[in-house]
């Protein structure tokens, strides 16, 4: 069933478990996520991000994700992640996405508050939820790599003010996490996660989840993280599945698809079980 973020994350926050958000830039990825969630009776979030739109346009993503979510036997939130422009967020709303992240984290604090509060007002009138970001989660490499990531960590007191003034439904935080592959094991600031959770009372979001250790995930969830973003792990698993199919002698794309999906489902299952959301999608 298609639901919004609050329908999933508020229960996760209260229940002390996490929910995976998986980017799905093709039907095979979407199948791997939703079919695994159904098999494990787990709520799940699935969608795409603005930076991924060159791979698959927003309208095309909506054409397969929204109907699949509606038909699913477990709660599925279709989320537009890291929306960088007002216009693209509005397009996501029109296409049926049930949740959006309006990422204004690189703007000044007051501009971030103003823009996100406006988005919240629009989305809430439509029954759609909003994720904001405070601090800034950079990349592990490339143009988005931060020289001193700790300079951009989320401040707990500022987070409390941001939550009160914007009305966001969840908050993405910067606590030592980063997007993409980690060159070295990350050092998450768990004390900061706890303090932000206590001061905002919001479901917290951990971006850059691929590559963190199981213990990191468990502790972060226990301290208030309710949504964990995963893309790199599932993306690489799909590639390895295709490679396995080729090694097995398959000669067509059609024959490679089952290998691709099977490998991605392994990752999705692993994360759902790790985050503790298995069996939580029955109500």
Number of helical stretches of at least 4 residues: 10
> Whole-number radius of gyration?
18 Å
Note the overall shape: globular
Outline the biggest β-sheet: 8 strands, parallel, barrel
List the helices and strands and how they pair.
Elements: E1 2-3, H1 5-15, E2 19-23, H2 27-40, E3 44-49, H3 58-71, E4 76-83, H4 86-94, E5 99-102, H5 109-125, E6 129-134, H6 156-166, E7 170-173, H7 190-200, E8 204-206, H8 214-223, E9 225-230, H9 232-247, H10 253-275
Helix pairs in contact: 2-3, 2-10, 6-7, 9-10
What do these coordinates show?
- This protein is an alpha/beta fold.
- Helix content is about 50%, strand content about 15%.
- The chain has helices at about 5-15, 25-40, 60-70, 85-95, 110-125, 155-165, 190-200, 215-225, 230-245, 255-275; strands at about 1-5, 20-25, 45-50, 75-85, 100, 130-135, 170-175, 205, 225-230.
- The chain has an 8-stranded parallel barrel, surrounded by 10 helices.
- Helix 2 packs parallel to helix 3 (about 60-70).
- The chain is globular.
- The relative contact order is 0.17.
Task: Please sum up the structure shown.
With 283 residues, the chain is α/β, with parallel strands linked by helices.
């Amino acid at each position: 069933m298609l639901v919004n973020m609050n329908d999933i994350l508020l229960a996760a926050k209260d229940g002390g478990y996490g929910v995976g958000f998986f980017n799905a830039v093709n039907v095979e990825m979407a199948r791997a996520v939703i079919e695994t969630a159904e098999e494990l009776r787990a709520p799940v979030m699935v969608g795409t991000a603005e930076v991924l739109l060159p791979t698959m346009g927003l309208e095309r993503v909506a054409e397969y994700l929204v109907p699949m979510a509606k038909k699913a036997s477990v709660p599925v939130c279709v989320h537009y992640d890291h929306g960088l422009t007002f216009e693209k967020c509005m397009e996501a709303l029109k296409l049926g996405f049930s949740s959006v992240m309006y990422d204004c984290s690189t703007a000044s604090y007051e501009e971030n508050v103003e823009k996100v509060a406006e988005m919240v007002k629009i989305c809430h009138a439509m029954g759609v939820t909003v994720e904001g970001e405070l601090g800034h989660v950079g990349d592990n490499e490339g143009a988005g790599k931060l020289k001193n990531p700790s300079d951009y960590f989320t401040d707990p007191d500022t987070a409390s003010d941001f939550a009160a003034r914007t009305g966001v439904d969840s908050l993405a935080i910067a606590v030592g996490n980063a997007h993409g592959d980690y060159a070295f094991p990350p050092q998450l600031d768990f004390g900061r996660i706890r303090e932000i959770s206590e001061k905002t009372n919001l479901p917290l979001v951990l971006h850059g989840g691929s590559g963190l250790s199981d213990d990191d995930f468990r502790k972060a969830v226990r301290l208030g993280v309710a949504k964990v973003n995963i893309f790199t792990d599932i993306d690489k698993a799909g590639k390895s599945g295709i490679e396995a199919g080729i090694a097995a002698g398959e000669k067509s794309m059609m024959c490679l698809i089952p290998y691709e999906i099977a490998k991605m489902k392994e990752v999705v299952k692993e994360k759902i079980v790790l985050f503790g959301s298995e069996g939580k999608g029955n109500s």
